[in-house]
Design goal:
By secondary structure, this protein is α+β, with helices and mostly antiparallel strands. It folds into two domains: about 40 residues; about 60 residues, no CATH class. It has a three-stranded antiparallel beta sheet. Helix 3 packs antiparallel against helix 4. The protein starts with a strand and ends with a helix. It binds zinc ion. Zinc ion (ZN) binds next to loops.
């Protein structure tokens, strides 16, 4: 599942766009102001993380699940949210987008391959 990032020329904010179909990539819209005037940004999302890198960054999944809970998209979203909560930080919009997509069953590519 490729993720493209665009910077909006109207409001200068970043939009992360999951490309579900080739056609949808042709018509990206700003997630903040709806402008179609976007330029491609260098992705800040590491979409090629290995499982080990993810574990190092986010820690192991919360109790309640075995190793397989890692593959559950709702579980992944939950512990990322909890981590940000513990740090007293707001979830970045990029992570929010990824979690919401994961909960719809759209795994980021490296997770799908686990
Ligand atoms: Zn915008």
């Amino acid at each position: 599942m490729p993720i493209y990032e665009y910077t909006c020329n109207a409001c200068n904010r970043l939009s992360s766009i999951f490309v579900r179909r080739v056609a949808s990539a042709a018509d990206p819209k700003c997630q903040h102001c709806g402008s179609a005037d976007l330029r491609r940004a260098v992705s800040r999302i590491a979409v090629h993380k290995t499982e080990q890198q993810i574990l190092e960054e986010y820690g192991t999944p919360q109790p309640g699940g075995g190793p397989d809970s890692y593959k559950d998209p709702r579980q992944i979203g939950r512990w990322v949210e909890q981590r940000f909560e513990q740090m007293g930080m707001e979830l970045p919009s990029e992570a929010r987008t990824m979690i919401d997509a994961a909960r719809e069953g759209e795994f980021p590519a490296p997770v799908k391959d686990l």
